[in-house]
Each structure stands twice: as C-alpha cells, then as structure tokens.
Amino acid sequence: MLAACATSGPLGKADKKFQRGEYQAAITAYQDAIKGNKEVGQANFKIAESYRLSNRLKEAQPFYEAALGKGVKSEEAFFYNALALKAVGRTDDAAAAFRDYLDKGGRKFAERAEQESNNLKTAKAMTAMAPRYELRGLDQVNTERSEYSAAMRSGELYFASGRDGKTFPGNGEPFTDIYSVKFDDAATMMGGTPAKLGGETINMPEQNEGSPTFSQDGTLMIFARGNDGSKKGALSVDLYQSRFENGAWGAPTLMTISVPNADDFSPALSPDGQTLYFASSRRGGSGGNDIYRSTSAGNGRWNAPEAVTEANTAGNENFPGVAPDGTLFFSSDTHPGFGGLDVFSVKNGKVANEGGGMNSPGDDFAPLFTGPGMGVVSSNRDGGKGSDDLYSFRRTPRKTVTFYADGTLLSKPERGNDLTPRPVANSKVRFEMNGRQVGETMTDGAGKFSFKVDSAQTYHIVAERDGFFTASQNLTVPNPPAQDQLAQQQNDVRLPVTLTMVEIVKDKAIVLENILYDYNKADIRPDAALELDKLVTILQENPKISVELSSHTDSRGKDAYNMKLSSDRAKSAVAYIVSKGIAQARITSRGYGETKPVVKNAKTEEEFQKNRRTEFKVTKIATDANGGMAAPAPADTKPVAPAKAPAKAPVKPAPKK
Predict the structure, then answer these.
(1) Band of pLDDT at residue 501, cut at 50, 70 and 90
(2) What whole-number distance in Å separates Cα of residue 478 and Cα of residue 485?
(3) How would you classify residue 412: left for phi > 0, otherwise alpha for psi between -120 and 50, otherwise beta?
(4) Most confident of the ranges 49-53, 198-202, 231-235
C-alpha cells in the first residue's frame, strides 16, 4: 500500500512558504534545504508539488522522479509523476507509471489513473492523424511572459498578460492584467501597442486579472480576479462583472455565483449573452476543476450554476469557449488527448478532441472563435516566445472522399454457338448489409450501374433474372486515404464490380472444384466444406431450383468398390449441405463410380484427376400453376447434423479416388 505524505525536520521555512502558496519562493527554499539534509526525498517531492500547483507540471517531472528514487512512497508522488511523464511526452513511461500506481494499491486517484491509462493507449494513434487546424503565433502580442485567454470587443482583441508589474509569488512571474489591441478578424494585427485596460478600476497592482468575456453589445464584461498569493489576501479566484458607461468601465462587482474558498475562473458568454460558462474547483464536482453554466435572470443577476456533466471528469476541465453556432468548447487534461490540456468540443452530448494543430503535447486552452472554424487559442507549446502564447487558428479545409461501386451486369448463355456474356439493360441490382437490403439501383442500356457506398463497410451485391443463376459478389469498401494522399478537395473513388448471371440449363453438369477426400474415406474435410459452402450459397440465392449432387471416381480399382465409395461421398456432401438449412427435398445424391469419365481411357495423373470430381446439375425449376416461377420449397426447420469433418486435414497425400 502506498504511504501518506508527511514532512518533518529542517524544512519548516520552506514548508511555510509552500503553505502560503508562495510556490516560487518555496522552490528556492527547498533547494537550499536539500544541501546537507537527510530528507532529500521529501524536499524534492515538495519542489515537484510547487511546480505542479503553479501550473508547471513539465518542470515538476524530474523532481517527482528524484523523490521516488529517494524513497518517497506517497500516493501523490506516484500518481503525479505519471501525470508529469505524460506532460513531457513520455507516453510509454506514463502508461507504465499509472499501472504501477494501481498495482501498488493506489486508491485516492484510482479512477483517474485507470482512465489515464486507457487514454494513453489511443494517444499514439491520435498523434499520427493529420492536423485539423493551422496555427500561427500572434508575434505582435506575445512576449516571453504569459499571454492567454483572448476575447473580442468592437474590433479589439482583449487578453490577459503578465508582461510587466510586480511578481506573483505563486509562479515567480508578474501578476496578469487585461490588455487590448486593435485586431482584424482575419487574424492580422491592425497595429498599435497593447494597452492595459481601465487603469486600476479593472487591473489591480497585486491581483491577477484575466479571461475577459463580453456581451454582444460590448457593454458587459465578466472576468476573473484574485489569488494575490498572500495568506491574508484573496487566495481564491472569483468572477466579477463591470458595465461600460459614459466611455469607461465601471467598478467591478463580485458575482453572486462565485463561492468562497474555491476558484471560479475563465468565464465565457454564449453568443446571445444568455448563458455564462465558467470553470470552478467548488465542492460537489466530478474531480479537480469542472465546467459549469449559469443562465441570465436579467438585470445583471444570474441563476444558480449547474455542472456540464457531459464535459467533466475526475481530472481538470477549464477555459470554456462558445463558437458562433453555440457549440461548447473547453480544455481538459483527462479526456483522451495529446498531453497536458487539450481543446475539446461537445456536440450532441458527446465530447470530441479537436485534433492535431489545435492540440499539442503542451497545454492548449481558451479557444476564442472570431468566425466559423477560425479564432485565437492559448498554448504553452514548444516554439512560442515563452510561457503561454496566443495563436490564431484556422480549421484546415478537410478533403472529402466519396466511394462508388461502379459495376457491369452481364448474362452468360450456356446454349448455342455464341456463349459470350452480354450486358443486361434496365435490371435491378440490390445492395445488402448483414442480410438486410440497404439500397438498389438500375442498370443503364449498356448494363452499367453505380451506387454510392460508405467507407469501411462490406456490401453483398445481388442481381437476379428468371432462367439464370443469381449473381452476387461481396464488396469491402476501404477506409479513406490519408489527407496528404488526396489530390482534390472532393475525391471520388470508383470500385469496379462485375456481376455475371449464368444461364440455368437443366441436367447440365457443373463441376465443384477442389472437393477432395482422404484416401478410402467419405468424410467431409474442412477444405471440401469451404467449396460445398459455395453450392449452399447458390441454393440459397436460387430457391426455385432442385439439384442432384454426384460423385465420380477414376477407373482404377474395382467397379463395385468405386461405385460404393462415390455413393458414400455424394451422400456425405448432401448431408453437409442439408445441415446448412437447405431443404432435403431440393437435393439428391448419386454416386456414378467410374461410369461417366470426362476423359475416356485416361492414362496420365492429370487425366485421372479430371475424372475424379464432384458435380451438381439442376434437375428441376419450380413453376407455378400459370407457368411462372413458383415459391421455393421451405428450408428444414431442424437441420440434419453435418457430416463428420475433422478440425484439421490429415497429413496424408491427396486421395487417388
């Protein structure tokens, strides 16, 4: 069982800073305390926790690893080390670490560890998918400090930034304030230097402000404020609203939907301004931070929030955003993703990862939509200017693929001098899946047909005509090619199909190939069963015919022996076919021994093989009283037990008879 976390000894000074939320100062104090200290494991663990609690999980990973290496056995150390391994992109190591946590009896985070372990199984497949978005850094806005959570109002881009000001003791970076700059919806800067919003009315010198969102008319702003990093001050984050009156923002008021002793942050108004989404760590949620929504009650009042249950997990869901069509987006570190926070959407109650481009192994969050499929997102991915940066995004136009079954229907006569297959005009062709018809089409004057089919599906294509065997063929439609393999925006893939209906001629023998028996035996071998299944299909698709199945031997051996052997083999074949549900009345058996050779006076093994054969011939075509085709005979309700067939074919040579 994993041990509980505890600290003791000469780490008191560092512990006090940690308990006050002064994580950057705590990191320095713990690093100093490590020198000459026996409690190196605990000090490394607290350094790791300081990084994690100040949203720097990547930096935490080596310290979790060092703590475990020095004997720390707390549940938190094992679990958060696994999370940190995921954050730095070591997915295989992370998966092993989550399993190790569970194998050691971890309980506190068991549900999330199980979920994370399962999610990592799909991570590699997700990263191999083509990017769905193109991103470009807003270099005129971004600095080496943090820029995040963009919003639009009256042609200006608003965002949070820690580019100047006093240092926030939580992470060692400056407190964040709200800034604005002229901005074009086409993601092109309009020029000018970002300006801090509203003096000290909105931005307070030792508070963090961020995540503004605006009503459609621009007169209402809701934003997050708090967490000054001091024990006596505001340790939690709350939601505030301000009105734009007489050309200036009024004094913000604390919103009643915020609760004490919990963080309420990253607000986002719906396009109609009637629903406010936000993230909260309040009690009663699904896990860490959860997404909530509140509806407007009018006059600046809001109804009691409710959890967006379809989005929330045992982990953290933050930074909601709403597209112009009302689709909810949010970020999560627990739904299956690329690592860190990923952007997800909720459509028809289902959560979907927004895929590559938008998401990376880092934290990707706070999507702002300035138009369909385009906008601004925040990320600390590699390649930025530093910390969190703003990126414009545009959804990559996705190339589409449409599959068609393009076929030709032919009829093949079996009598006369010209046996050339001929096109069948104006005839139905039906498409089935799992025994159920899903569509049909007609052939044109040249016997051609075309039918739109779905990718990754198998169709059974069937054509029928009186006096001919039913023609059928299975068609398995592949998955669409990769995006980079498609030449056009719209691509048609044509899959060729040829159906040939063969004329039914009574009493004309049709050879069943590869019906082989073990020497001196009549049992149906597995390879023979596969061939007999083809006759079963013919009888199922042509329910109005009755057939005789016959077996023939070559001329070697005694006549009586050959006659009995061929009769037994024919009976076994019929019994097998009847066991598949074919009515006994529709099929008879007969052994001809060596009396009907194909090659008379055979001398070579090839000629003997031609004489050793199994055939069937149509003996009857049912007709009704008016001379038309009659209804088929019913299948047996209780199939006869199949002829004996060993699991594996004996390792003996092919039979001579």
Answers:
(1) very high
(2) 14
(3) beta
(4) 49-53
Q: Mapping DSSP to helix (H, G, I), strand (E, B) and coil, where does residue 624 land?
A: coil
Would you state the pLDDT for residue 190?
57
109-140 pLDDT per residue, tens: 888 888 888 888 777 677 767 788 999 999 88
- pLDDT, one tens digit per residue, over 319-331 is 999 999 999 999 9
How large is the greatest C-alpha to C-alpha distance in the chain, in angstroms? 116
DSSP 483: G
- Other beta carbons within 10 angstroms of residue 219's beta carbon come to 13
The DSSP symbol for 570 reads H
pLDDT over 70 percentage in the chain: 90
Residue 647: both structure tokens together: 């699991």
From residue 48, give the alpha-carbon distance in Å to each of 20, 92, 117, 245: 16, 21, 22, 46
- For the chain, helix (H) and strand (E) counts, in that order, are 11, 34
Estimate the share of the chain in helix, then strand, then coil, as percent rounded to the nearest 5.
20, 35, 45
568-596: average pLDDT:
95
- Total residue count of the chain as it appears in this document: 657
**Helical residues (DSSP H) of 582-645, grouped into ranges:** 605-611
Alpha-carbon radius of gyration of the chain: 38
Closest CA to 357 of 323, 391, 318: 391
Rounded to 5 degrees, what are φ and ψ at 79?
-70, -50
What is the pTM assigned to this prediction?
0.61
**Of 76-80, 81-85, 402-406, 608-612, where does the model show the most confidence?**
402-406
Residue 557 in tokens: 């051996």
Burial label for 466, CB within 10 Å (0-12, 13-18, 19+), is: exposed
Instruction: Give the pLDDT confidence score for residue 339 in this predicted structure.
Output: 77
- Please, are residues 259 and 282 in contact by the beta-carbon 8 Å criterion? yes
Place of tokens 């000894």: 9
Residue 423: count of CB within 10 angstroms of its CB:
15
For residue 369, the model assigns a pLDDT of 93
**159 vs 178: CA distance, rounded Å:** 6
- What interhelical angle do 57-69 and 40-53 show, nearest 10? 160
Q: How many CB atoms lie within 10 A of CB 415?
A: 9
The pair of structure tokens assigned to 558 is 């005694």
The one-letter amino acid code at 352 reads: A
Burial of 635 (0-12, 13-18, 19+ CB in 10 A): middle
Over residues 386-432, the pLDDT tens digits come to 889 999 999 888 889 999 999 999 999 999 899 999 999 999 999 99
Residue in 409, 442, 412 with CA at minimum distance from that of residue 427: 442
